[in-house]
Amino acid sequence: MSDTSEIDAALSLIAERGLSHIHCGWFDANGTLRTKKYAARHMKKGFTEGIPFIAVPSGIGPDNEIVLTNAYLQPDRGYANGSVLLDAASIRDVPFSDPPGLLLLGQFRPPAAEDCARSRLATELARLSALGFELLGGFEMESAVLLETPDSLASKHADEVVEKTAYNNTFSFVEQVDDEPFLGQLLQACAQAGIAVDTLHPEYLGMLEVALAPQPGMRMADDAALYRAIAKLAGRRHGRLVSFMARRHGDLQGCGAHMNISLRHRGTEDSAFFEADASDRLSVTAHHFIGGLIRYLPELFLLMAPNLNSYKRFRPNLFTPLSNTWGIDNKTVAFRAINAGAASARVEVRFPGADLCPHLGVAAVLAAGRAGIQAAIEPPQPVEGSGWDVEDAPGTGFPLSFEAAINRLDGSAFARSAFGDGFVDNFVGDRRWQLEQFANVVTDWEIRTFGNL
C-alpha cells in the first residue's frame, strides 16, 4: 500500500520528532477511529507487514455498546488479532497533543479486511482505477453544537437537550466572530491535522456546517472521518458536545453529509465528467455514473443512512431529498450535477446523513457509479423545478424506513458482489440488533400518549 519514498518520509518525520510511540489505527463501520499508541521502533514493520490489532472493536455499536450478534464477538473466532497495514501517506499531526504527536491510519489485511471500512473503499478505488479513473471529492458535513457532555446527554430526553443558540442565526457574521474562540481553534486543529477547510459557518436551525476541500482517493474519506473526531475534541475544550446524530429533535432539521464526487482520467488533471460541447456540458461518463447511482444506490441505501435514527431525516419539509432523482444545479434532488466548468464538474450526493461512515458511503457511491459506467446505464431525464414534488416509479425509489433499507441491502446481489457476503451479513446483523434493542424501549411519546389508558 505504501511505496518506498512514502515509508522513508514517514520514518524520517518520526525520527525527527523523537517520538517513542505513534497513534496507529483504523476506522470501524460506524466511522469511529480506533487507535492505540504503538512503539515507533516497530513502524517500518507496520508499513510492510502490519501491526497486530484485535478485530473485536468491529463489533462495537455507535453507542459504544457491544453488539452481541456481531461475528467478531463470537467465541468460535477466538477473539483473534488481525493485522493492520499502516499507510505511510496517511501520517498526520495530532492536534491538542503536547508534545506534538503523530497519527497513522491503516486497514486490516485479510481475513479481517472484509469488515474494515478503509479496506472496502480501497477495493473500490482499485476497481475505479482499472477503468482508467481516479476520485477527487470532498464532504460537506453538518453537526449540532450542544452545551452538553456525553454524560449529561445520556441522562436527558430530546426536549431537555441544550443547544448553542448562536447557530440558529444563519450565516451571522456577529455570531461567528463572537464564537471565534471555538471556531478558530477548530479551524486551527483541522489545519494542524492536514484537513483543508474551504468554509465553516452556522447553517440553519442550530447546525454548524463545514465544507472540506476536495481531496484525491482515500484522503476524501479520511478527512471527513477525522474532522468528526477533531470537532468533538475542540468542542470538549469549550464545554460543548459536537453531535453528528442524524436528527436530534422533531422540531429541528437533521444533520446531513453531502458528498461532492468527481472523476478524473487516471494520471491526469482532466475531468471525466465535463464535456464543453455537450448540450448539458456533462460527459457520457457523467451520465452513466449518474445512471448507476440511480439504479444501485437504493440497494446500498443503508450504507448512507446506517442507523435507526437516520430515517428521522426522511420527512417532508426537512430539505432532505426523498425521491431517487437527479438534476442540474438543483438542491431538491438526490443527485445534483454541477456543470459550470471542468474544474468544478461533479455530482453532489445530497441525501446521506452525517452519521454515516464516510469510507463506506464513498465506497457505495463509487460501486454504484462504476457499475453504471461499465454497463453504460442511461439516467432518466433530469428534474427541473422541485424534486420534492416528484414521485418515483414503482420499484425505483429509496427505502425510506430502517427496516426496509436493512432488507434491501440484505437481499441485494449487487451489494454482495461489491462488498462481499461476510460484510453484508455482519452490517445487516448489526442493524437488526438496533431494531431489536429499540423494540424494548418505551419512549416519552408512548408514556404521554398511552400512559392514561
What does this structure look like?
Strands 7, 8, 9, 10, 11, 12, 13, 14 and 15 form a 9-stranded mixed β-sheet that branches. The mean pLDDT is 92. The protein is globular, with a radius of gyration of 22 Å. 48% of the residues are buried. It is an alpha+beta fold and 453 residues long. The chain is built from 14 helices and 15 strands. It has helices at 4-17, 43-48, 117-130, 150-154, 173-178, 180-192, 218-236, 284-296, 301-304, 358-375, 402-410, 413-419, 421-439, 444-450, and strands at 21-27, 33-39, 51-54, 81-86, 92-94, 101-108, 133-146, 197-202, 207-212, 215-216, 241-243, 257-265, 326-328, 335-338, 346-349. It folds into 2 domains: 4-114, Glutamine synthetase, N-terminal domain (Ubiquitin-like (UB roll)), CATH 3.10.20.70; 126-450, Creatine Kinase, Chain A, domain 2.
Mean pLDDT: 92
CATH architecture of the largest domain: 2-Layer Sandwich
Proportion of residues in extended strands: 15-25%
Q: Roughly how much helix do the residues carry, as a percent range?
A: 25-40%
The end-to-end span amounts to 63 Å
**Main CATH class of the largest domain:** Alpha Beta
Number of helices: 14
Gyration radius from CA atoms, angstroms: 22 Å
Give the tally of β-strands.
15
Please outline the major beta sheet: 9 strands, mixed
Domain count: 2
